[in-house]
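Figure 2 data, in text form.
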Amino acid sequence: MIKLMRPEKPAELTEEKEQELITEYKETQREVWRKDYIVENLKQMSNNKCCYCETKLGTQGRALQVEHFHCKQRYPDEVVRW
């Protein structure tokens, strides 16, 4: 298992952008975190590997999935909290 060290929040993820994405998530229940500036930081944080099994992302059918600290259905206001 890879220990993740969270880098600084992406500059593009402003308070206003967070609120916009939270509102969109609440309305659509769709993945709003698949923004290049979020995904690239997450991939960099995990060395482009699954943090659980350490398989390189994009190989062997390993698509990028984002695990949330709190359940996003119960805590939608945290869906893009860095």
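Caption note: Helices lie at 15-28, 36-45.
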